[in-house]
Amino acid sequence: MKKNSKSITRQYNKPKSMDPMCPEFYGVIIKDKHVKIDTRRYKKFFALPDNKIEIRNTVYYQPSRVHKLDYYCNFFRTRCEMLLEKYNTEFKIAIEAIKTPKQVEDNLRVQLLNTGEDYETAQEIALLKGIKRINPYKYAIKSLYAQFFHQMMAEIDAQTCRVLIPLGFREDDFSKKSFDVFIQSKQGSNAIPFKQFKYYEIYDRAYAVWNFLKHNSKKAYDVLCKHYPEMIYDPDNSYRNVDLVLSVLKLDERYILKVLKELPLFFDEICRLGFGENIDDAKWDYEDYFMNEVKSKISSLEIDQLKEESVCHIYLYRLAIDWNMEVI
User: 202-216: per-residue pLDDT in tens?
Assistant: First the structure.
């Protein structure tokens, strides 16, 4: 046993490559087409993501996954981040491009004054125009919110099916109930339903809002009023099937952003309870994490090297000028 221990120590302390431009120099070793970590060497350059990786029976640490998205929790989180980016880079710009009542009022006032209209008349006409703009503006904004929210929830449903089907999900018609039943089947004998999940309310509320948007029905309205009355503004309880959802539904940017930021917490619970994933480990326990750390380090060294070469070239150039030498 002592001989084996000494052999392991020698392997640890003598990396094959001493080139700082090589990943092995930092303790990241590619072996059998997989990344393995020499933690003793790695921690000389980087902080260990978790000290438990040093508690093992092997020479090198073998990450549990290859890629970040090999974890289902990371897959769901990334999809929500992509939707958030889509909102900020596309829909938000479109919303901000819609003229507000104040902009309409100000623009018309300037136009009237430029045509020679007196200020009081221009102010009165512009003010009325701005007031008339309020309701069309609110409807246009809420329509874009509704469009994005509907697309967002449909995409989340689609991506959920993308994860579940390879795992054995066979329902032709995906629903919140069939999703719940399937995850319970993955939990074993101590299965708990979605209603007992800490963050289920986030998903359930968003689903109820989406159903109301899709079906525009009194039934969907009643469900939303019963469970999440804060999402409805209808003091007279006068909504009927012939009415528009947007006339009573509270849907704005703040709620959309809240769903996208908090929904991953619900999917984390699903992946922890249904798929046995460790959410904290999923942040780092994959081969690409360690390789990316090293690549970033090497890239910074290359940049520093280029800077040094540039400074050296400038120095030689100036020296040549001082000595009246020909610069090649």
Answer: 999 999 999 999 999
